[in-house]
Specification:
Number of strands: 12
Strand order of the largest sheet: 1-7-6
Low-confidence stretches: none
Number of domains: 1
Oligomer: single chain
Structural class: alpha+beta
Shape: globular
Strand content: 15-25%
Mean pLDDT: 90
Order of helices and strands: EEEHEEHEEEHEEEEHHHH
Largest sheet: 3 strands, antiparallel
Length: 227
């Protein structure tokens, strides 16, 4: 279980945190992240294990710890807010951290949470901003998903991949926006999606699917380089 503690400058004056390293290949995102995410990786829907409710995530790899969304300079092409806030949580109007999280395991590496005057460090300010955006945009993102569902635009997607080393992968429990249904919705539904600003997000998700074969090719290239 997480060891949750409310963040404050006295209790955590000596706590240091490393740069985030999200291991999960599928990471939840909110609407404001779509422009940066859609040009780097596939945007898909999945269901929460605890409630069954849909959420939207960015697929960054096919295995835990694998990142296939790298830019030419070898840096991540997309850095999700969930990665920035890793190890931290919102508790009502407060920020908390999980002291048992490996992001805080080092006593010397990384950056302090607070400076010598007890003020939030640059990295802690970034966490605060990320948590703030995730909380502020959760409702709008859920409203977008609800609108997709109301027009029957969500459909399962079959992602089955074969790699040069003989491995075969099938990603389960993923959904996308149906291009076929999108083309058949009536004028009133299309106008509703457009005026709500949802049309652009729906097409961003559809177009982002082109990254799946590109990521598979990048994975094969890495496999070849290891031989």
């Amino acid at each position: 279980m997480p060891s949750i503690e409310l963040v404050n400058s006295e209790t955590h004056a000596t706590v240091r945190m490393r740069a985030p390293e999200i291991a999960a290949p599928f990471v939840r995102i909110v609407l404001s992240e779509f422009p940066a995410a859609a040009v780097a990786c596939p945007l898909l829907l999945s269901k929460r294990q605890d409630t069954g409710a849909f959420y939207i995530g960015a697929l960054q790899g096919f295995r835990p710890g694998e990142r296939l969304t790298v830019a030419p300079d070898d840096r991540p092409a997309f850095h999700p807010l969930e990665a920035v806030r890793e190890g931290f949580f919102a508790v009502e109007d407060n920020m908390a951290l999980d002291r048992a999280h490996n992001r805080f395991a080092s006593a010397t590496g990384g950056e302090s949470l607070f400076d010598g005057e007890g003020l939030p460090s640059h990295s802690l300010k970034a966490v605060q901003a990320a948590l703030g955006r995730l909380m502020a945009e959760e409702g709008a993102t859920e409203a977008f998903i609800a609108k997709l569902l109301s027009y029957g635009l969500v459909e399962p997607i079959d992602v089955s991949l074969s790699f040069d080393d003989g491995e075969r992968l099938r990603l389960e429990g993923l959904y996308t926006v149906s291009l076929d249904v999108m083309g058949d919705i009536g004028d009133s539904a299309a106008l509703d999606l457009f005026r709500a600003g949802h049309m652009q997000y729906a097409y961003a998700m559809i177009m982002s699917l082109q990254h799946i074969p590109l990521m598979a090719r990048r994975r094969n290239e890495r496999l070849a380089a290891m031989l």
